[in-house]
Amino acid sequence: MNKMFAVMKREYLQAVRKKAFIIMTLLLPFLMAGMMVLPGLMMSKGMGTKRIAVLDGTGKLESAFARPNAPEEGEEKLDARKEARKALSGRNRRALPSQMQIEYVNQPGATEAAARPYLERISRKDDAPDKLDGVFVVPAVALTDPEAKLTYFSRSATDVMTQERLARLANKSLQGLRLSANGIRPEVVDDLLQDLDIEAVQLSRSGGRKTGGELNFIVAIIFGALLVLPSFVYGQETMRGIVQEKTDRVVEVLISSVSPVQLLSGKILGVAAVGLTQIAVWITMLAIAGGYGAAVATTAGVNLSQFVRPIVFVYFFVFFILAYLTYVCVYAIAGAVCNSEKEAQQFMMPIMLFMMMPWILMMPIVMNPDAPFAVAFSMAPVFGPITMFVRALVTDPPFWHILVSIVVSIATIAVFFWITAKIFRVGILSYGKRPTIPELMRWIRVA
Q1: pLDDT tens-digit map of 309-342
Q2: Angle at alpha carbon of residue 223, lines to 386 and 406, rounded to 5°
Q3: CA angle 221-37-383, nearest 5°?
C-alpha cells in the first residue's frame, strides 16, 4: 500500500509542477468562455457593418427600415430592468439592427431589372464610398399577392442573419398594412401583432417549479464539458506516461520495486488527483467570478437556485470520479500494449469515438433527458456517468435511476480494472509488435 501511494505521489507532483499544467489550469476557463461567447458576438454583430439598399415597390415600408430617433433630453426612459427584459424576450426584433445602414429607395414596380444599378454597386471595391453589401427588393404586389417573393442580393449566399432580419421587418410591416387596409386602426396593429413571451417551467416529481430553461441548457453544456474533458485529457496523460516509461525502459526498474497492480493503481489514483485539483481550481475561479454576477442577479430578483442546486456539486464529484476511472483504465491498456504514442493513438481512436457517444449526443440528451435512449444511456456501462449527471442536472430523474447508474458504473470499473491489471501485468514488459485481440484474451487468461 505504501508503494502504491508513493507512485501516486510521484505521478501527482510530476503533473502539477509542470508549467503547462499551471498555465492551462488558469487560462482554460477563459479560453472556453471565449469559445462560447465570441461566436455569438460575431454572429450578433454580423461580422461588421453592412450597407443595404432597400428597393420598396410598395412605397409604404419606409418607416419599417427607418432608425428611431434618439429620445429628447428630459424624456422619460424605460426602467433598466424592463429594458433588459425586453431585449431578452425578443420584443425588439422589429427594431433595425445597429450594424445595418439602410439606403431606402421608393421604387415603384421594383424588379431585378430596376435593381441592376444597385446590384452593380455590390461588386465595387471595399473602399468605394457607394459600395453596397446587399440589395433587398420588395415587389409592388407584396401587399396583394400571397405568392409574391422578397429577394435579397449579396455576395454571400450564406448571409442568412441579414436576410432573415430584413425579411422579418418587411413582413411585419406588410402584415400591419394588410390589417389596416381591412379596417383595423393602425394604432392597434402593433398591439395585435405583438409576440408573447414564453417561459419554460420544469415541474419536479415533488411538485416543485423551476424556471430558466435557456440558462439551464447552458449550465448543462458547461458542466458536461467539465466532466468530459479532464477524463479524456488525463486518460491520455496516463497512456503517454506508460508508453514513455516502456520506451525508456524505466518501467523495468519500477517493476523490480513494485508490483504491476501497485504501479497501475498508483498511476490511476495520482492522475485522478491531478484532475480533481484542476476541477477544484476551475470551480473556485467560477465561484469567485460569479460572486459579483450572483449579487447583481439577486438584486434583480433572479433566483440562482433555478439554475444550479447544491446537490449538483455532489453529483458532479461522484460522476467525475466514476467517469474518470472508467476511461483511464482503457487508456492504461493502450499504454501497456503499445510501444509508441502514435501506435497508442491509433489503437484508441475507434475506442474513443465509442466512449464519446454521450458527448456527441449531448444536445438531444439535454433537450429530451427522459427519452428512452437517454434513460438507457444513463444506466449503461461506460456511458452512464456522463449521461446520468446531465440528466440529473436538467431534469428530476427517479432516485433509483441514479443508484442503478452508480452501481453499474462501479461494477464496470471493477471489471475494467481487473482486465486492465491482467493485461498490464503482461503487456508492461512486452515489446515489438502490438498484440492482437486473441493475444490480449490469452494474456487475461494466463496473467
Answers
A1: 677 778 888 888 888 888 887 887 777 777 777 8
A2: 30
A3: 15
